[in-house]
Amino acid sequence: MTITENSVVAFAYTLTDDDGAVIDSADTQAPLVYLHGRGQLIPGMEKGLDGRSTGDQFSIVLPPEEAYGIYDENLAGAVPLSAFEGVGEVAEGMQFQMELADGVRAVTVREVTGEHVILDGNHPLAGETLHFDIEVVSVRAATAEELEHGHAHGPGGAH
Ligand code: ZN
């Protein structure tokens, strides 16, 4: 079966950065499952999977613009350490949900200096070119219930 809108797709992948370091992966035993055509994957991924079939193996290279965006310096800034009183210890790599001008955003603690915490609202993969090696494990038509819910069910699915 070929991947078209409303296909439920299972695929294995290895995601590496420009230096070949592995960022993330899923093997054929525990593939990623999603409903195609609903914006559940980043746009470049859905475009790359469109029209592929079970067993296909291929690579997709996505520049930041088609992945998690260009790194935006304006989303990073220093907050006084005193603002975190009562939160407990603040350490590099911690993530918070913060209410910002454009809504709730996940921010990451980049650095803790003597009196400030450098927060970064960019996606951790912003600015990265992503290299996906993909193998399509299975393709099937979505059930009526899946279409109604807008996501895939079953192993690897939403619930
Ligand atoms: Zn559901």
Q: Can you offer a commentary on this structure?
A:
The protein contains two helices and nine strands, in the order E-E-E-H-E-E-E-E-E-E-H. The protein is mostly beta strands and 159 residues long. The chain folds into two domains: 87 residues, Roll (Chitinase A, domain 3); 48 residues, Thrombin, subunit H. The strands form two sheets. Strands 1, 2, 3, 4 and 9 form a five-stranded antiparallel beta sheet that branches. The two termini are 24 Å apart.
Using only C-alpha atoms, the radius of gyration works out to 19 Å
- Compute the number of structural domains: 2
Helix fraction bin: under 10%
- In the CATH scheme, the class of the largest domain would be Alpha Beta
Q: How many E-type strands?
A: 9
CATH level-3 fold name of the largest domain:
Chitinase A, domain 3
Distance between the termini: 24 Å
